[in-house]
Design a protein that fits this description.
The chain is an alpha/beta fold and 225 residues long. 26% of the residues lie in helices and 22% in strands. The chain binds adenosine-5'-diphosphate and the ligand Cc1cn([C@H]2C[C@H](O)[C@@H](COP(=O)(O)O)O2)c(=O)[nH]c1=O. It is an enzyme of class 2 (transferase).
């Protein structure tokens, strides 16, 4: 029976890599599918992994209708066994509802991938609807790590080395950028996200440049805004 599955987690935990692997394995067995993405860092209509692999994909604009996209493919004589949907946090709630309908009424397997929450720890609309509707929500096996060694569970936005907690929900970016003024992201454990202690702040607070404060008491709480 077809399912709507949501692979969810922080940035940099291997979601796009898994999306490419699932597509590869399906194709290797003669199954045919459609690949979708939205606002991938590598550019329009590309699904890219930090491991260096990428593939072309359909760019999901706000007016794309998944039901219509599948019908169009079938009408043109194509087959659609599955959909791979990356960066699904950016999809609209209506689009996630269309995905559920594609599963239930067309029997097409839909696997979606996306970050759960934004830099303020608030759910993205697409992720919220996927959590509400998915048959299964899966956490990836590969652990992205906080600088302290704990499993990373949250995404921090960093500008010029400083963690920020205000701004637009959507700003495309990567987990490391050397360019000044450019938004970058760092994955953190909850403790360090709540303390607003990214790796740069931890380094500044450590007694020597080589020692990060693994002792939580050594991490000062930032002043309340
Ligand atoms: N040079 C590398 N060698 C081995 N693994 C790497 C390398 N660079 C990135 N990775 C792996 O790729 C993962 C990120 O994969 P990606 O699919 O781009 O993540 P996501 O889509 O979740 O943001 C990292 O967690 C790490 O395991
Ligand atoms: C936390 C957060 C992230 N984003 C953007 C940054 C990236 O372009 C994508 C996530 O991509 P990945 O393949 O999972 O690394 O989301 C954002 O726009 N807003 C945020 O708060």
């Amino acid at each position: 029976m077809a399912e709507l599955v949501f692979f969810s987690g922080t940035m940099d935990c291997g979601k796009s890599t898994l999306a490419l692997q699932i597509d590869h394995n399906q194709r290797a067995r003669g199954r045919e599918g459609l690949i979708f993405t939205k606002l991938d860092r590598a550019g329009e209509s590309v699904l890219s992994s930090r491991l260096g692999l990428e593939t072309t994909a359909v760019e999901v604009g706000d007016d794309l209708d998944f039901w219509d996209a599948v019908v169009e493919q079938l009408t043109a004589g194509g087959r659609v066994d599955y959909l791979i949907c990356d960066e699904a946090q950016f999809y609209t709630t209506r689009q996630v509802e269309q995905l559920a309908r594609v599963v239930d009424e067309m029997g097409v397997e839909v696997t979606a991938f996306g970050i759960t929450a934004d830099f303020r720890t608030e759910l993205f609309p697409g992720s919220r609807r996927l959590i509400e509707l998915a048959d299964r929500v899966e956490v990836l096996q590969v652990e992205a790590l906080c600088w302290c060694g704990r499993r990373a569970t949250h995404n921090a936005r960093v500008v010029d080395g400083v963690m920020v907690v205000e701004g637009e929900q959507v700003v495309v970016g990567d987990t490391a950028s050397a360019r000044a003024g450019v938004v970058e992201y760092e994955v953190l454990c909850r403790r360090h996200h709540m303390r607003r202690m990214n790796s740069r702040a931890a380094l500044a607070a450590s007694p020597t440049p080589d020692t990060l404060p693994f002792d939580l008491d050594a991490c000062p709480l930032p002043p309340r805004p």
